[in-house]
Design goal:
This protein is of the alpha/beta class. The chain has 24 helices and 27 strands. Helix 14 crosses helix 16, helix 14 packs parallel to helix 17 and helix 23 crosses helix 24. Bound molecules: alpha-methylisocitric acid (MIC) and iron/sulfur cluster (SF4).
Length: 750
C-alpha cells in the first residue's frame, strides 16, 4: 500500500541528500536523510538540532480509536472535504479483555456502536482507511501493511515509533497534530538530537529484543530520550528480526524519545516479502544506500551523533523491569533478591502476553517454545494467563500452526487482537483494593493503575518467553534461566532457552480483518453522530486569550513525583468518553499525587476550605466563579501517552498555565496546541516554595516571545509576595496559538 509513496520518495531523496551534505558540510545519518527528504521547505529551514522547529511533510497518518475521535473532531473544524495525506483509523483500544476473543469482540461491537459508527462514517467521508475492531493493534497493523524504510509518519499514539523496526521514522503525536496534517498543513517538531545506539555481538539464549530496550530503559531512564531520536547501528542490528527491531523502537516511547529507527537490512527485506510486499522489498534493496547512514558516519559515529550508547548483545541478560516505571531494570536472575529486599509479593496473580510491543509471530513462537517445555513436563500455568495476538494475520497463523492451542492447553485465555489489558480493559477477578499484588506482562507500560485499575498493583515487564516461564512458576522470584520447577514425574524441569521462528515456515495466513478502503468520494456520506450522544460531543472552540496577565490563580493541584498522562487522564473505564470532552473531564488528575492532599486525585477548594474533593470538581467550582487555575507539576510531567485529553480536560475546566520542573515532549506540545501555557521552573527548587493556598500570577504575557523568560509571582495568604523566573519553549507561531486560544483557533483565524 506504500509502494507508490516509497517510489516517489526514493526518486527525490538522492538530490535532497546531496543538497543537505553540501549545506551541513558533513555526511548524513539515516535520521538526517529521512528528515531532509520530508522537509516542507528545505532551503528556508533552520536545521539546528535541539533548537530549530522543523516543518515536515509526513507520508502517512495513523490513528487509533481512542485518540482518533478527538483528532477527527478537530479535523472536522478545518472544513476540509478529504484528508490531504493517506491516513488510517485502527479500532483497537475499546475492546474489553474479559471472556476471550469472540465474546469480547461481539460485546465491543454493541457497546461501542456509536463510536465505531462515527469513526467509520468519518473515515468514508474524508477518505481514510478503516481497520475495524478485531483487525489488530494499530502498530502491528501498520508494520504489516504501511511502514516502509525511509518513510516519515505520525500517529496519534505514543508507540507509533514501532514503525522504526521497518526503517520508518514514525512519531507519536496528539490528535491536533494529526488533524492539521490531514488538513494539509506541515507538521512541526523540534529538530531532534541524535543518540546513536551501537549494537555489537548478537542475541542468544534467553536474551531477546525486549531485553535490549528494557536494558536501555534502565540506562537512559524515562526522560533520557526527550527530544531525541535513537538511531541504531552496528553489526548487532542485523542479528535482530524486523519485528524484534519494532519491539525495540516501540519502547523508545518509554524513554520519551521522539522516534527510534533502524537502518534497512536483510531482516526487513525478508519481513516485507513475508507480508506480501515483494515490490517494496525490491525497491528498498535497490535504494539501500539511501536507507541507512552514510559510510563515513559509521567510521566515526562519535562525530555525527550527539551521544553514543554501546550495547553488547552477546553479554545481554534477560531483564525484568518494574514496578510502576519501565526504567527500574534488572537482570531476571536478580529478581529473587529484589523481591526479598523490597518485599514485593512473590506470588504472581496474573501473567499477560501481547500488546503492540510484543505480539508478533516470532514473539509468540518463542513463548510457545517455553510453553511446550512446561506442558511436556506435565505443568500448566499456575496463574491466569492472557494472550493477545497483534493482528488478524498473526492470530490466524498462530492458530494454524497450533500455537494458540499450546497456550490454551497451558490454561491461557486468548483475547481479541487488541490492546486489551494493556490499556485497562481488563477486570482482574481476584483484585482487592488496597492489596498490592504482583503481575507480570510483556507490555511496555507499567504505570500504577494501568492494567487492572488498582494503583497498588505491582506490575513488572519482561519478554513474552520470560512471562511464560513465570506463569508456569506462578512466582515472581523464579529464575527461568537457572531455577527449576517441580513436576509430577519427580524430575525437576529446567527450561532450556527457547528457539522461535522469525517467520512462519508455511507463510502467513489470515486476511485483513475486514479493512475498509477509503471511498472514492465522500461528498454524499453523512457523519453518524447523534446530537445527544454520551460518547461523542462536537467541540466548541476554546475562548481566545483576553490579552490580560494571569492574576491570582488558585493552585488546582501540585503534583508530586511521577505524573504520567495515565495519572492526569486515566484510561480503563474512562476510554468510554474519549470523544466527549465534558464527560471525560471528570477523570482529571484522578491518578495524580497531590502534594497538598493525602489521597490520590484529591485536593482542597481553597475558596471554601473544603478538602477531600476530586480535582475535577474543584476545577468546575473555580470555573463557575469565573476563575482560572494553575497546575504545578514535577519532573517529566505528562510522560507516557499521546492522549490530548490530558491537555484538553484541564483547558476545558479552566487551567491557564502548567508550571513544571520539566515536560515530556508530546504532552508539552498538546498543552501548547490547546492554549495552555507550559512553563518550566528556571530553578527547579522553586517547586518547593509553592503552597496550597498560594495565588499564582503570570505577568508580562503581552510581551511573550520566543526564548524570553516569564516572571511568575506567588502571593501567600499572609500577603507575602515571592517572584521567580520560568522558561518556555514556545515559538512565535505557538505564541499565536496561545493568543488565539488554541492551535485550531489560530488556524481558523489565519
Ligand atoms: C497507551 O499506551 O497509553 C495508549 C493508550 O496507547 C496511548 C494512547 C491513548 O491514550 O489513547 C498512547 O500511548 O499514546
Ligand atoms: Fe495499545 Fe498498549 Fe500498545 Fe498503547 S501500549 S497502543 S494501549 S497495546
Amino acid at each position: 500500500m506504500s509502494l507508490e509513496i516509497a517510489r516517489a520518495l526514493y526518486a527525490s531523496m538522492p538530490g535532497r541528500c546531496s543538497e543537505a551534505r553540501k549545506r551541513f558540510g558533513r555526511p548524513l545519518t539515516f535520521t538526517d536523510k529521512i528528515l531532509v527528504a520530508h522537509a516542507d521547505d528545505f532551503a528556508a529551514q533552520d536545521w539546528t538540532r535541539g533548537s530549530a522547529m522543523l516543518a515536515l511533510r509526513p507520508d502517512r497518518v495513523a490513528m487509533q480509536d481512542a485518540t482518533a475521535q478527538m483528532a477527527l473532531l478537530q479535523f472536522m473544524q478545518s472544513g476540509r472535504e478529504r484528508v490531504a495525506v493517506p491516513s488510517t483509523i485502527h479500532c483497537d483500544h475499546l475492546i474489553r479483555a474479559r471472556a476471550g476473543a469472540a465474546e469480547d469482540l461481539a460485546k465491543a461491537l454493541g457497546e461501542n456502536r456509536e463510536v465505531y459508527a462515527f469513526l467509520s462514517s468519518a473515515a468514508r467521508k474524508y477518505g481514510i482507511g478503516f481497520w475495524p475492531p478485531g483487525a489488530g493493534i494499530i502498530h502491528q497493523v501498520v508494520l504489516e501493511n504501511y511502514a516502509f524504510p525511509g518513510g516519515l509518519m505520525i500517529g496519534t499514539d505514543s508507540h507509533t515509533p514501532n514503525g522504526g523496526g521497518l526503517g520508518m521514522l514514525a512519531v507519536g503525536v496528539g490528535g491536533a497534530d494529526a488533524g492539521e496534517v490531514m488538513a494539509g498543513l506541515a507538521w512541526e517538531v523540534l529538530a531532534p538530537k541524535l543518540i546513536g545506539v551501537r549494537l555489537s555481538g548478537r542475541l542468544s539464549g534467553w536474551a531477546s529484543p525486549k531485553d535490549v530496550i528494557l536494558r536501555l530503559c534502565g540506562l537512559l531512564t524515562v526522560k533520557g530520550g526527550t527530544n531525541q531520536v535513537l538511531e541504531f547501528f552496528g553489526e548487532g542490528a542485523a542479528s535482530i528480526s524486523c519485528t524484534g527491531k519494532a519491539t525495540i523502537t516501540n519502547m523508545g516511547a518509554e524513554l520519551g524519545a521522539t522516534g527510534s529507527v533502524f537502518p534497512f537490512d536483510r531482516r526487513m527485506e525478508s519481513y516485507l516479502r513475508q507480508t506480501g510486499r515483494a515490490g517494496l522489498a525490491d525497491l528498498a534493496v535497490e535504494h539501500r544506500a539511501l536507507l541507512g547512514p552514510d559510510p563515513e558516519v559509521l567510521e566515526t559515529p562519535e562525530r555525527f551523533y550527539d551521544q553514543i550508547v554501546d550495547l553488547d548483545l552477546s553479554a545481554l541478560e534477560a531483564q525484568i523491569v518494574g514496578p510502576h516505571t519501565p526504567d527500574l531494570a534488572r537482570p531476571v536472575s536478580r529478581m529473587g533478591a529484589d523481591v526479598k529486599e523490597h518485599g514485593f509479593p512473590a506470588e504472581l496473580r496474573a501473567a499477560l502476553i501481547g500488546s503492540c510491543t510484543n505480539s508478533s509471530y516470532e514473539d509468540m513462537s518463542r513463548a510457545a517454545a517455553v510453553a511446550r517445555q512446561g506442558l511436556a513436563a506435565g505443568l500448566k500455568a499456575r496463574v491466569p494467563l492472557y494472550i493477545t495476538p497483534g493482528s488478524t494475520r498473526v492470530y490466524d497463523t498462530l492458530e494454524r500452526d497450533g500455537m494458540l492451542e499450546t497456550f490454551r492447553r497451558m490454561g491461557a485465555t486468548v483475547l481479541a487482537n487488541a490492546c486489551g489489558p494493556c490499556i485497562g480493559q481488563w477486570s482482574r477477578a481476584d483484585a482487592v483494593p488496597g492489596r498490592a499484588d504482583s503481575i507480570v506482562s510483556s507490555f511496555n507500560r507499567n504505570f500504577p493503575g494501568r492494567n487492572d485499575g488498582l494503583a497498588e498493583t505491582l506490575s513488572f515487564l519482561a519478554s513474552p518467553e520470560i512471562v511464560t516461564a513465570l506463569a508456569f512458576a506462578g512466582r515472581l522470584d523464579f529464575d527461568p534461566l537457572n531455577g527449576t520447577l517441580e513436576t509430577a514425574g519427580g524430575t525437576p524441569l529446567r527450561f532450556s532457552a527457547p528457539q522461535g521462528d522469525e517467520h512462519p515456515a508455511r507463510g502467513f495466513v489470515g486476511g485483513d480483518g475486514g479493512y475498509v478502503a477509503p471511498a472514492a468520494t465522500g461528498a454524499r456520506i453523512e457523519i453518524e453522530l447523534a446530537p445527544d450522544s454520551e460518547r461523542i460531543q462536537l467541540l466548541v472552540p476554546f475562548p481566545r486569550w483576553n490579552g490580560k496577565d494571569f492574576e491570582g490563580l488558585p493552585v488546582l493541584i501540585k503534583t508530586q513525583g511521577k505524573t504520567t498522562t495515565d495519572h492526569i487522564s486515566p484510561a480503563g473505564a474512562w476510554l468510554r468518553y474519549r470523544g466527549h470532552l465534558d464527560r471525560i473531564s471528570d477523570n482529571m488528575f484522578l491518578g495524580a499525587t497531590n502534594a497538598f492532599a493525602s489521597e490520590r486525585g484529591q485536593g482542597t477548594d481553597v475558596l471554601t476550605g473544603e478538602s477531600g474533593l476530586g480535582i475535577a470538581e474543584i476545577a468546575r467550582r473555580y470555573k463557575a466563579q469565573g476563575l482560572g487555575s494553575a497546575v504545578i507539576g514535577d519532573e517529566n510531567y505528562g510522560e507516557g501517552s499521546s492522549r490530548e485529553h490530558a491537555a484538553m480536560s484541564p483547558r476545558h475546566l479552566g487551567v491557564r498555565v502548567v508550571i513544571a520542573r520539566s515536560f515530556a515532549r508530546i504532552h508539552e506540545t498538546n498543552l501548547k496546541k490547546q492554549g495552555i501555557l507550559p512553563l518550566v521552573f528556571a530553578d527547579p527548587a522553586d517547586w518547593e516554595r509553592i503552597e496550597r493556598d498560594d495565588r499564582v500570577s503570570v505577568t508580562g504575557l503581552a510581551a511573550l516571545s520566543p526564548g524570553q523568560p516569564v516572571r511568575v509571582a506567588i502571593v501567600k495568604p499572609d500577603g507575602r509576595r515571592l517572584e521567580f523566573e520560568t522558561r518556555h519553549s514556545l515559538t512565535a507561531r505557538q505564541i499565536e496559538w496561545f493568543k488565539a486560544g488554541s492551535a485550531l483557533n489560530a488556524l481558523r483565524h489565519d
